[in-house]
Amino acid sequence: MGTGSTLGLVRDKLSAAQSVTVLTGAGISADSGVPTFRGADGLWRNFRAEDLATPEAFARDPRLVWEWYNWRRELIATKRPNPAHEAVAAMEQRFKRFWLITQNVDGLHRDAGSRQLSEIHGNIWMVRCTQCRKMLENRAVPITILPLCPSCGGLLRPHIVWFGESLEEEDLERSAAALQRSDVCLIVGTSGLVYPAAGFGAIAKQAGAYIVEINLDSTPQSSLADATLQGRARDLVPLLLEP
Ligand code: BV8
Ligand code: ZN
User: Fold this and answer.
1) In this structure, are 175 and 141 located in the same domain?
2) Domains in the chain, number
């Protein structure tokens, strides 16, 4: 089916929906100029996210990991939400029950006004003390390398979920609750490779949700989608809200 007719179908599903859940990945921020993880521009000094976003890498070389995060903070600090982020934020007023689950750590959904959300992989503007676990917002650009805790002098780390680290219990619970009650689940701009987020579509599907995937390409979860809209999130997501 062409995008036109699929779009009409998805709009009908959404107009009848009481409860909508949206799952986003790096693709929704690509249109704001934030490099995706697995796209060509996802590399940094020929390191890959999987090599640097781990507790082992931080323990071995905290300076290198902080240099990577400082580079990303400097880049993200100049980026603004795009119409896809804004449309997702507007959905909070549109549906009786709405929840956003984002894998992105760039904070652009918050900047666009989203409040009903779980940032399941953390937020690049939040840091946490490795000693006293104090959490605080730190928007310094550049950030002092190595940043120390104002309370105990311990080494601060990004408040981000690294590979091999488990997600926060509260985020997992909120996500499961939203997915299990949704009438429609939109999966936007994620390659569906990173777990447990990559399994969230199946949870919603199992609970009877109508699954819509919005992506430039097909992904491992395209097979469970009831409708796929191929294209840029910034072009397609706003169209879902049109009367
Ligand atoms: C955990 C923070 C367990 C870092 C991130 C099997 C084998 C090996 C390992 C595992 C396995 N199963 C599970 C694991 C472990 C691992 C994992 O899944 N690994 C993967 C690589 C296989 N998972 C974990 O470690 C997770 N923890 O499982 O804990 C546990 C349990 C108990 C006790 C201890 C441990 C933690 C995962 C979190 C990792 N942290 N981020 C940072 O950002 O600095 S993940 C990282 O990838 C980002 O958060 C990112 O969001 C996420 C997923 O990537 P995507 O968002 O999908 O982005 P990507 O670039 O891949 O794709 C972009 C998509 O957008 C593409 O499809 C593209 O086509 C599309 N697109 C591009 N432009 C556009 C677009 N679409 C629309 N419009 C556009 N304009
Ligand atoms: Zn401390």
Assistant:
1) no
2) 2
